[in-house]
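Question: what's this shape?

___
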Amino acid sequence: MSFKIFVFCSILVLVCSFPVNKQCHDLKSCFNTNKSPSPKQLCEACYVAMPIARDIIKKNETKSIKEIATFICTYLKIEELKICADAIDLFTAPVLNIINTTTLNDIELCSVGLGCGPVTNPILNWNITLPNIPKPPVFPPILPSHDAPKLRILHLSDIHIDFEYQPGALADCGQPLCCRNSSTSKFNSDPIENDQFAGYWGDYRNCDVPKWTVENMFEHIAKNEEFDFIYWTGDLPPHNVWKQTREDQLNALDVLTNLFQKYFADKKVFPALGNHEATPVNLYPPPFVKQDNISWLYSQLAVDWVKTGLPESLVQNITKGAFYSLQLYPGLRLISLNMNYCPNENFYLYINSSDPLGQLAWLVDILQNSEKIGEKVHIIGHIPPQSCLESFSKNYYRIVNRYESTIVGQFFGHTHSEKFRLFYDLEDIKRPVNVLYISGSVTTYSNLNPGYRLFTIDGSYKNSSFQVLDHETHFLNLTEANLTLKPIWRKEYSAKEAFNLISLYPQDWNELLNNLSKNLNSPELEKLYRYYSKSSDNQGSCDFGCRKSFICDFRQSRSDNFIPC
């Protein structure tokens, strides 16, 4: 076998098993180096390498692939040797098992993994069945009276607490996660400047937040904010995804559970699961995977989620699939989804992605019953549906369309940046039908200030809409905090005040986007872009093309981005 074929094989394994490079927003971007192949070259390499790799797997000669993958990782200067080796050790077994098990052919597997082209295989193309019950008439929402009762929700997401954060450690390092004692320059010959070191309260570079910053935020919220309950939408551990153990992941869960109990003992916490809670990251095996399971995580989730407010009656739901539903108030139901069975990065879905665990069918049953009895519904989750495989994303969009009058709030995280996404009528794509809120992260990773969000919703009374009436974001300016060593959490903005909105219904947000599209230099667009990073001092500029794309993204809630801009 030629060296070139071996190189292609190693690139294939590396792409599938190494989602840790700091620039890896998708699989192809892991190779953004001077020597990296183009997307077309990478796809062509995959087409050649895949049958060879499968043959090697069947012959149980995977050691050769691991050795060459490690060589290529270091040769392309993707990461240093130890990180390459650790990542490949962690990911190789499940990835090779998936390649060996999936019924996708070589071209299909390369296409779904690398985005080389569309895939028509039925394991990736499926639909759920909606009830044969006519959709009720849609009536325009009516604002509640000024003196109607209100409820306040604290939303926390993407904490990514780092127990190894070290002030003074290298922040501008050559590793995927910095600000740790183990952080080193990518090339030892590089001179180290004073501004490359980590601040005490956090850092804008590729660093997560230290425990003391998280605890300071919790203490501030407990002393200064009034709210009724908490939505907590996942991603607890740090971004050292190349070397994480199950014990590491469970420790992050336990520590944060204890902090919630310490500072919010009188509040109920309603959680959703993030993609970083698993190890290897993103790999949540559905029940049909016999070589691995996720029960080690779900069983502990059941214990800790009950500690922070979920009823014991939900333990079976949590241990089965980490999704659940319960009534929060008369007339308001919460649905917490486990979105880890939807993204491209969960390679187990290459075996079968068809509504894993029957979660979307379950969602439809809950929504249909809520519609029948007149309940309104909030949905929480971690990964927004735009980041899901196409079939999951399209089906979720269909569900939101069908139950637009029942779903009155969607609260997600994952992106670390603040934004919202609109859903449009599938029969009239100019009519907005729902809005999904993505709250910003607690972590600073990357170029962000830490923050939290408070939602004001219509309160608990007869015929309440339970709609979102306003939201406000609070943040910590890292530059100031590290200079003065005095953390000051400030209100950044209120949505209604900042954008002069009467209400926060879908049509209000749609009108705002329409106006911004007509004036790309408007002060409102400047605000929206600044709030995207929670007023980070390290936010990059956004030119004309960037602004057009930025606004367009708020209209997309499906992974195929089918709404024209």
Observations:
- The longest strand covers residues 468-476.
- Confidence is low (pLDDT under 50) at residues 1-11, 14-34.
